[in-house]
C-alpha cells in the first residue's frame, strides 16, 4: 500500500493504466494499492478519463457491478494519426530509398521504436472493437510492427516462419505464391503457436498483390482460425484491383509511384483514413 499525495497518485494511476491496455482493473486494486476510498479513486479516474479524451490518447471504459472496474483502450485521434502519417510519407519519399529493381528501403523505419509504436497504435485503433485472440505476422520485417500492435491490444504475437525450425516442434506448412514473378514459397506455423478457432489479426509491413498475406490466411484455415482483420504499414498503389488477392484490409500509407530512373517516389495516406 502506498500513501501518495493526490497529484502523485494521479500520475502513477495513469502510468498503471497505460502499461495495461485492454485489461479490466477492479477499483479495489487501486483502493488497496493507494490506501484510498473507492469514491476518491472514482474521482481520480474521472480526471484521467477526461485528459485521455481531450488529448486523443485513448478512452477509459467503466464497467459497473461487483465484477466491474476500468479498462484503458488506446485510441489515436484522427488529427494525430494524420500528422504522424504525413511525416512517415515524407520519410518514405526520400529518393535515396530506391534500391536496384525498384524496391523501397524501409528497414531503418521498421527499426525505429517511436515510429513502430505510433503505427501499432493506429492499427490497434482500427481494430480496437474487434474480438481478437492473437496478432500474426510472417518473419522478419513485419515483426516490429506486430509486436507494437500486440502491445497496444495486450495480445500475444504469433510468428509464421519461412523455414521450419526444429525448435518449433511439429508444424503445419503450406506453399504460397508471392512477388511480381509469381514465385512459389513455403511458410509454416508451429501447432503449439496458436489454439484452434482463434480470431487472428494479421499484420505486415508491406503489401503488393497480397500473396504473402493470402498465404497466412490459407495457413489459418488449417487451424480452423478466423481472420479478424488485416493491417499493413504500406500498400502498393500500383497494383490493379483485379490483380490484388486481398481486398479487405487497412493500410496506413499508400505507395503510388517508385520510378528508379527519375528517382521519384510518391506516398500518400492509406485507406485507414477512409474508415
TrEMBL record:
> Where does the Bacterial purine repressor N-terminal domain lie?
5-74
Q: Which UniProt keywords apply?
A: DNA-binding, Transcription, Transcription regulation
User: What InterPro entries does this protein's entry cite?
Assistant: PRTase-like, PRTase_dom, Pur/Pyrimidine_PRTase, PuR_N, PurR_Bsub, WH-like_DNA-bd_sf, WH_DNA-bd_sf
UniProt keyword DNA-binding, yes or no: yes
Residue ranges of domain Phosphoribosyltransferase in the record: 112-238
- Carries keyword DNA-binding? yes
* UniProt similarity note: Belongs to the purine/pyrimidine phosphoribosyltransferase family. PurR subfamily.
Q: How does it assemble?
A: Homodimer.
Protein name per Swiss-Prot or TrEMBL = Pur operon repressor
Amino acid at each position: 500500500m502506498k500513501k501518495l499525495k493526490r497529484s502523485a497518485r494521479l500520475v502513477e494511476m495513469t502510468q498503471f493504466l497505460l502499461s495495461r491496455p485492454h485489461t479490466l482493473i477492479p477499483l479495489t486494486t487501486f483502493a488497496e494499492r493507494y490506501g484510498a476510498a473507492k469514491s476518491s479513486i472514482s474521482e481520480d479516474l474521472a480526471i484521467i478519463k477526461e485528459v485521455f479524451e481531450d488529448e486523443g490518447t485513448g478512452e477509459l471504459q467503466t464497467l459497473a457491478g461487483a465484477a466491474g472496474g476500468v479498462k484503458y483502450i488506446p485510441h489515436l485521434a484522427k488529427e494525430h494519426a494524420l500528422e504522424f502519417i504525413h511525416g512517415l510519407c515524407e520519410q518514405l519519399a526520400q529518393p535515396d530509398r530506391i534500391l536496384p529493381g525498384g524496391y523501397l528501403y524501409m528497414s531503418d523505419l521498421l527499426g525505429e521504436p517511436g515510429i513502430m509504436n505510433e503505427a501499432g497504435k493506429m492499427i490497434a485503433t482500427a481494430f480496437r472493437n474487434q474480438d481478437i485472440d492473437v496478432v500474426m505476422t510472417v518473419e522478419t520485417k513485419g515483426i516490429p510492427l506486430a509486436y507494437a500492435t500486440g502491445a497496444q491490444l495486450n495480445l500475444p504475437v504469433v510468428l509464421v516462419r519461412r523455414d521450419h525450425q526444429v525448435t518449433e516442434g511439429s508444424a503445419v506448412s503450406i506453399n504460397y505464391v508471392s512477388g511480381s514473378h509469381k514465385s512459389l514459397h513455403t511458410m509454416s506455423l508451429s501447432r503449439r503457436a496458436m489454439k484452434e478457432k482463434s480470431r487472428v489479426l494479421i499484420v505486415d509491413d508491406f503489401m503488393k498483390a497480397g500473396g504473402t498475406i493470402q498465404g497466412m490466411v490459407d495457413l489459418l484455415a488449417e487451424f480452423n482460425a478466423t481472420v479478424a482483420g488485416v493491417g499493413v504499414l504500406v500498400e502498393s498503389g500500383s497494383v490493379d484491383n483485379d490483380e490484388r488477392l486481398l481486398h479487405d484490409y487497412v493500410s496506413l500509407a499508400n505507395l503510388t509511384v517508385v520510378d528508379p530512373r527519375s528517382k521519384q517516389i510518391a506516398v500518400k495516406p492509406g485507406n485507414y483514413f477512409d474508415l
